[in-house]
Amino acid sequence: MTGSSSIVAADPSTALMLRVRDGDAQAFEELVGLWQDRLVTLFRHHTGDHAIAEDLAQEVFLRVYRARASYKPTAKFTTWIHTIANNVSSDLRQRAYRRKERGVPQNVSASTSAVGLEHLAVAASGLRPARQADRSELCGVVQEAIAALADNQRMAVLLAKFEQCSYEEISQAMGLSVPAVKSLLFRARDQLREKLGPYEREGTR
Amino acid sequence: MSDRSLETPASETPADLLGPAWDLLDALPRVAAPASLTSTTIEMAAARSRPRPAAWWRGWIAPVAVVATAFAVGIAAGRGTVSDPDQFVFDYLPVLEHYDVVREAGSVDFLMALARRNDPPPRRPFSRNGAAAPPAYEALDAAVATFATEPFGTGFPGEAERRTAFSRRPAEDRRRLADAAVAFQRISSMDRRELVRLARALGGRDGEGPDRDELLAAARLWHQWLATRDPAERGDVIDLDTAKRLEWLDYARARSGPGRGGAFRDGEGFRGFPPPGPPPGSPPPDGPRFNGRPPFDPWPPPPRPPRPPRETPAPPR
């Protein structure tokens, strides 16, 4: 069995993408159905905004469809779509940066939200962890902590957590080396530990 | 510190590296996309894959691109071809070396027409004081020698040597050639081709061309007749075309014939060069007329009537 045929056999998304490449509209619909929840989740926690997450997921699918003719199953479809997702995220970040340069108020991500950081400071003050945090409260605190990460750190953490990507897959999707990915995650861990330390000690499992 | 931590076996997977924070990330919910997302995505993909209607400006892209490309190619070609300021001089070097000679001779057609007429040389062609002066054929002979030996144009064997020799010539010499090149460029392209053709014919380079000896004899005869004119005014005759040159020659012969005042020279009864026109006594030309008169006055001008004697006023008493 060749390398590409083994990839097709192991990854149903790759088989769907090959059908899309050959002009099968039904396969594209199946592919969208298979991936839309995963991408929306990824972008939702990356941007902090559900509507933007849907738009970004849709943009990923449109780029996949536009590039269908050039698709070659030399790697896993998962890695390919993660690369597109990272590029879409980078484009959004650059557009937001340009809007900021032009003085246009941005509403893209909560990562730079001053309110979120204040809330985070209160949450990490040691007063609230004294009692058992309920699930929704913990969710908010973790979202704030994730939002406080740098964009590339956040993307690496989300790819690892929600897409179960290995170091190599993250490095391919983000165009980085494996040591660079490890460095990103290491710094992310330190920041998360700083923000979520009280909850870790309380044992929220 | 971080490098040491990354090398530990505990960082085999991202979950190991993130440690307790990994479990806290389970608090983040998995989000379900709305049911309409699939259909809207399919519709948008289908809409983008449809051929777009041509925008109004798309019809201009190709012509503008062609013009811009041609402009760029033209500039590049121009820079490539005129990068050497001496290239034009170098290309026409044999002609420019003897530009005055070929300009005086005119063209092959003129010299052949002159040869067919069998005109005699002028009676007193060269000297104002009547002393026998040798005909000034040195320039013509040198030009003929150059035309016979020097190759024309570019791409001949020994071109590099000629270029090197040219670059080593004195600045004054190169300036003279540059002036000749400027004058050569000012005439029409047809006249330029005629001069090159004449130079090749005088040098015997045209195997199928006219007889070289006839051309040389005609050129010498023409040089003699031009010598009868004041040097400062020879340019007017040289600038004439073939027909006008022959017409001027008829006039010059008539003026220098027996009983017509001798040589056709200033200071010997000649009152200046007349405007071009028919010889004296010929019927009026069938040309344009101005107010019923010919476009030029008859030559020589009719004698003025004697002026009446002036009446001297009577002296006051």
List the helices and strands and how they pair.
The complex is a heterodimer of chains A (205) and B (317).
Chain A: H1 3-10, H2 12-21, H3 25-47, H4 50-66, H5 77-101, H6 114-123, H7 135-147, H8 151-162, H9 167-174, H10 178-202
Helix pairs in contact in A: 1-2, 2-3, 3-4, 3-8, 4-5, 5-9, 6-7, 7-10, 8-10, 9-10
Chain B: H1 2-6, H2 14-18, H3 20-24, H4 36-49, H5 58-81, H6 87-91, H7 93-97, H8 99-105, H9 108-117, H10 138-149, H11 159-167, H12 171-186, H13 189-202, H14 212-227, H15 234-238, H16 242-255
Distance between the termini of chain B: 140 Å
Approximate shape of chain B: elongated
Rg on CA atoms of chain A, Å:
19 Å
Strand content of chain B: under 5%
User: What is the distance, rounded to the nearest whole angstrom, between the alpha carbons of the first and last residues of chain A?
Assistant: 44 Å
Number of strands of chain A: 0
Overall mean pLDDT of chain A stands at 79
What percent of the residues of chain A sit in helical stretches (DSSP H or I)?
over 70%
Summarize the amount of helix of chain B as a percent range.
40-55%
Quaternary organisation of the protein chains:
heterodimer
Which consecutive residue ranges of chain B, at least 5 long each, have pLDDT under 50?
1-5, 259-272
Share in β-strands of chain A = under 5%
Rg on CA atoms of chain B, Å: 42 Å
CATH class of the largest domain in chain A: Mainly Alpha
Mean pLDDT of chain B: 76
